[in-house]
Specification:
It comes from Pontibacter burrus. Keywords: Lipoprotein. This is Gliding motility lipoprotein GldD. The chain is an alpha+beta fold. The protein is built from three helices and eleven strands, in the order αββββββαββββαβ. 31% of the residues lie in helices and 30% in strands. It has one domain: Protein Transport Mog1p, Chain A.
Length: 206
């Protein structure tokens, strides 16, 4: 066989082998189920939970996280003694609103109803809203709401002495990160809020 024919035969054999190999890979890939890889999340290193007293002149006092800063609410609808507890390194903000009940049962009922309505607004995106009623060490009644799902506020609460003081709080994040990846931070701040409620005291005459 001439060198030209031998070269052509070799090339044809290689081409056939390449085609059969590609076909085999195609068949194998069609029979293999694609399994997507789980989405990765950035690691969040949380600090040790330590606390400091609220030192400003408010009608309430409590201990809050040493890793947070207190800022007055500067919104147009803000009332006296409304504050934000901001976690700069976690992108979180616990917004607190306060109301003097002035001994009015009607005002108390209105504030409780408003708190429930504000929580209920998240029902569109929340697939679970769990309410827990607790008593603080000083005997105040508090309701804590835990929300599951892609909601803007994952944790809300209110606490009152039922006669004069009413304090409501809501946790928000200044980030678009999904709540699944924020779960450790949410739990971290929940513990801070529980500590805040356990150390809450009303400052009479203010």
């Amino acid at each position: 066989m001439s060198e030209v024919k031998r070269s052509a035969t070799t090339k044809w054999t290689k081409l056939q082998f390449g085609l059969w190999f590609a076909l085999a890979l195609l068949v194998a890939s069609c029979g293999t189920e694609y399994i997507p890889k789980p989405k990765g999340y950035n690691r969040i290193d949380l600090p040790e939970q330590t606390y400091q007293p609220l030192k400003a002149d408010y009608p309430y006092s409590f201990e809050y996280s040493s890793h947070a800063k207190v800022r007055p609410d500067s919104s147009m609808i803000a009332e006296p003694h409304w504050i934000h507890i901001i976690y700069p390194n976690l992108g979180a903000d616990v917004q607190l609103t306060y109301k003097d009940l002035q001994g009015s049962d009607k005002m108390l009922n209105d504030m409780v109803e408003d708190a429930r309505k504000l929580t209920g607004k998240h029902q569109i995106k929340a697939y679970s809203i769990e309410e827990t009623e607790i008593r603080t060490p000083t005997g105040d009644m508090a309701s804590v709401f835990e929300l599951e799902g892609e909601v803007p506020s994952q944790f809300q609460f209110y606490v009152t002495d039922s006669t004069k003081h009413f304090l409501r709080g809501a946790l928000y994040f200044r980030t678009a990160t999904q709540n699944d990846s924020l779960a450790p931070v949410i739990e971290f701040i929940k513990r801070d809020v529980v500590h805040m409620l356990n150390t809450l005291k009303w400052q009479e005459g203010k």
